[in-house]
Specification:
alpha+beta, five-stranded mixed barrel, two-stranded antiparallel ribbon, 33% strand
């Protein structure tokens, strides 16, 4: 939270790990504080043995950057992939939270009633959501109005060095990987 507020103090754009909903909440806190006559609201973390104390304030500049970062400027057909991790049915406005592992933030996605069973079955799984994608001025995805959802294979893990060693035997000729690296490094 403190990192995100710090980023918003300097420039507009969705901070890492912030969803558009979190940005809306920060703006609401800042606006409310200024209406109540406060100059700012501060978030603090205490000093520990491993981490120094930190603080950030929700100032008028933070609110201004915050609101600019969630203004939509582009709507186009597209998709987003990630893990479907929350379904919200409150207030008749069905939406899911799709954790986009590329951007490391949750993307709010609205869906029609007829996709409820599909969404429920996909909860906790990797999916690609297709529909109208709304982006901010920086090109960051703010929301997707879902038309359809496609299940994706689970993300494969990155191979270890041991798994990669010797993968291209033709490249090193008859040398072992260790011998080849020694010769390249001049050791």
């Amino acid at each position: 939270m403190i990192d995100g507020i710090g980023q918003l103090r300097l420039a507009q754009g969705l901070p890492r790990y912030f969803s558009s909903k979190m940005v809306e909440d920060v703006a609401r806190i800042g606006k409310r504080a200024h209406q109540e006559g406060l100059t700012a609201v501060s978030f603090h973390t205490p000093k520990t043995d491993l981490v120094p104390a930190r603080a950030e304030r929700i100032t008028e500049a933070v609110v201004e950057h915050d609101l600019a970062s969630i203004q939509d400027t582009d709507r186009a057909v597209g998709s987003v992939a990630g893990v479907l991790d929350v379904i919200n049915l409150r207030r008749g406005n069905h939406h899911v939270s799709l954790y986009d592992d590329e951007t490391r933030r949750a993307v709010r996605c609205r869906f029609p009633d007829e996709l409820f069973t599909t969404m429920k079955d996909a909860l906790g799984k990797r999916v690609r959501a297709f529909g109208e994608v709304t982006r901010n001025r920086s090109g960051q995805i703010l929301q997707v109005d879902i038309d359809r959802v496609e299940a994706l294979a689970e993300a494969t893990s990155v191979p270890t060095v041991d798994e990669l060693a010797g993968i291209a035997e033709w490249y090193t000729g008859d040398q072992s990987t260790e011998d080849y690296l020694r010769s390249v490094r001049g050791a």
